[in-house]
Amino acid sequence: MNLDLNTEQTLLKNSAKSFLKEECPSSLIREVRESDQAFPQKLWKDMADMGWMGLGIDEKYEGIGGSASDVAVLMEAMGEVSLPAPFFTTVVVSGTTIQQSSNEEIKTKLLPLIVAGQLISSFALIEPNNEYGLTHIRTTATADGSNWIFSGTKLFVEYAKGAHYFLTVASVEGSGLIIAMIDATTDGIELKSMPTLDYSKQCEVVFNAVKVPAENILAVGEDAELILKHLEDICAVAKCSEMMGAIQSVLDVSVEYAKDRTQFGQPIGGFQAIQHHCANMAVDVDSARYLTGLAAWKLSQGMPATKEASMAKAFVSKAAVRISKLGHQIHGAISFCDEHDMHLYLRRSQSASMAFGSSEYHLEKVARQIGL
Amino acid sequence: MDFKFSEKEQAFHDELTDFLTTELPQGWADHPVHWPHDYAQSPYRDAKDVEVNESFVKKIAAKGWLTISWPKEYGGQGFSNMEQAIYDERMSYHRAPAGSSGSIGAGIVGPMLLRIGTKEQQAEFIPKIARGEISFWLGYSEPNAGSDLGAVRTTAVEEGDELILNGQKCWSSGAHKADYSWMIVRTDPDARKHQGCSFVIVDNKTPGLEMQPVINILGDHSFNEVFMTDARIPKNNLVGEKNKGFYHLMQALDFERITLVGIGGFKRMFEEIIDYVKTNKRNGKLLSEIPSVRHSLAEIATKIEIGYLLFWRTAEMLDRGEDPNVESSSLKVATTELARDMAEVAMEILGPYGQLTELSEWSPIRALVSRGFLESISATIGAGTSEIQRNIIAQRGLGLPRV
């Protein structure tokens, strides 16, 4: 047992941290927030040049390989700076899903483009009046010769405006679920912005009888369900890693602030009330780190990880919001100002806590896993 | 990160599981009545259980498992801290009588003597601790020195080859059943408060040492008040550096926070609660089908997993030669608050039945929950309150200024 990162992971962590600290300051988040650009193109290109887009993707498809634990390291570094770019939907969600498909043609076609940073993909799953999950998918896919016709409405599709493809989940009459990579330029696709509190560029995506060639289908029926169930665990863990980065930042800046800020003639960090807030944050951060680490490790080992992934998502989702709010409390009024960065973490934590299954959703999964 | 036991650790884990399943009487785990991570030291309820306890402790002593992580030359097995942790986990999961392992002698005094004791002290006490022949109580708290342990007033004054003790200790758990005290006393009354303390070993039979029982909230005799009036002990019983007792105490407390967790007990108790909700109905519906029950138990399962992870981490750090000083405080906060949370959740699920004591035939799960509800009050107070642990995490861990 060794609960530290290994040497390669430590190197990756350090280089990612120093790169992102330099290239993704909070001013960039504000710049993207106020502009029409979906995400900062230059940053995306630089990240691709560093080889990040190949993480978790087989060398066979020009990726650099790597485990779920390695991806977790990178996601954490991205969470530390609230990265406003579609790494998660493109590389983690789409990369993983495409890779697990048995459609060799599309793997060879799309994965190298992802690795090169030339393909942006977003994930179209949630539907109106649905929350996250694989049940009650009402978007339909109907076979039509060598094509499939997709119809339905998807919500909370991140970075849809910059995307080249939509990784889309739909229902097929009598065969369960289908997963397709839908080209964003196909006729019949409509996008509407869904502004959210974390400034993420989410969209409503409407598919009006969109024609999808059979070669763009990743999986149907049982295959699709297996892939998606595994994807749920991967997404839960990756989101936890991202939140881990955010709460580690919140803890670090709050402790620094508590040491500097003087009131009543002493640093506020000398007051027990503040110390206990910080201690609570530290215990939460550690708990989140090891729980997430365990789930990522199990995924990396190819072991069943649903219980651990859901435990992590249930816990970290609550902890992230709790910690971000304590960060605000320690900073006082300044943290209520737009110019201060604390609210970026609060926003991101709250959004991430609801993404890919809320705490309640994952507690129910844990309940099933422990035999209830 | 790698969460796997080594081959040797896994083999030891499996050996323990086999041993405990074979050697403990069938259904033994249904006998002990204590809640995880309590300091109430609940006694066995009948004479037969006391017998099982004694004969089982002899068996584990014969295996050399009472002090497995001690060096071989001191009667240990030279096992790693991780193997010690595995042992603690398996024993507590099976609710096995632990004897002196996982106790003050083997878990705190022994390791401290190995670090700071003289050769003579080691020769005198270590073999007996290793064989489970002697036991200790912790002489820390005093009426005016609780969380503020630096304020101890019990004095030890040198006279010839002796130290003369005067003062009072309180909340002395198990002192009436132990042989010796591992006691912190004031050896320099003029020094600043943290700088004038030392550790001594005090024989319970020392003339001038008297005890009075204190009954705890469960109705059991676990606490004592101990009075020392001109109690003379050999000067050689001073352990470690004179007037550096407070610094030694910090280390002793780390051992205590790790030793006394009994992490497997959480899992065992949780499994009993899970079994109960799967087989019992309220208003015609299985408890396990009620969403709030499912979710609150899933939350407890998650916290137990966190407790395990923080527990393994302290062992892993010790094996790397690092002091898990702050980490043992995180572990203590997390697991003791879990002890209370689990009791609270179980109480909520059982509803009015949760309040029943073992004297009622309607009491569910052997009335463990009503006991646990009370017992777990001790968890977040004993061995340094949660507030003291948070001070440690904030000051030593995060570098915030001392108040």
Defining key terms:
heterodimer; A: alpha+beta; 4-stranded antiparallel β-sheet; 10 strands; 17% strand; B: 403 residues; alpha+beta; 4-stranded mixed β-sheet; 14% strand
How would you describe this structure to a colleague?
The complex is a heterodimer of chains A (372) and B (403). Chain A contains eleven helices and ten strands. Chain A has 372 residues and is α+β, with helices and mostly antiparallel strands. In chain A, the strands form three sheets. Chain A has a four-stranded mixed beta sheet, covered by helices on one side. The radius of gyration of chain B is 22 Å and the shape is globular. The two termini of chain B are 36 Å apart. The model of chain B has no long low-confidence stretch (mean pLDDT 92). Classes of the chains: A alpha+beta (372), B alpha+beta (403). Chains A and B meet through helix 7, strand 10, helix 8, helix 9 and helix 11 of A and helix 7, helix 8, helix 9 and helix 11 of B.
Topology:
The complex is a heterodimer of chains A (372) and B (403).
Chain A: H1 7-23, H2 26-33, H3 41-49, H4 68-80, H5 87-100, H6 104-115, E1 121-124, E2 140-144, E3 147-158, E4 165-172, E5 176-183, E6 189-195, E7 201-213, E8 217-220, H7 222-260, E9 262-263, E10 266-267, H8 272-300, H9 306-331, H10 342-354, H11 359-369
Parallel strand pairs in A: 1-4
Antiparallel strand pairs in A: 2-3, 3-7, 4-5, 5-8, 6-7, 9-10
Helix pairs in contact in A: 1-4, 4-7, 5-6, 5-7, 7-8, 7-9, 7-10, 8-9, 9-10, 9-11
Chain B: H1 7-23, H2 47-63, H3 81-93, H4 104-116, H5 119-130, E1 136-139, E2 155-159, E3 162-169, E4 180-186, E5 197-203, E6 209-215, E7 221-234, E8 238-239, H6 245-259, H7 263-279, E9 281-282, E10 285-286, H8 291-319, H9 325-350, H10 368-375, H11 386-397
Parallel strand pairs in B: 1-4
Antiparallel strand pairs in B: 2-3, 3-7, 4-5, 5-8, 6-7, 9-10
Helix pairs in contact in B: 1-3, 3-7, 3-8, 4-5, 4-6, 6-9, 7-8, 7-9, 8-9, 9-10, 9-11
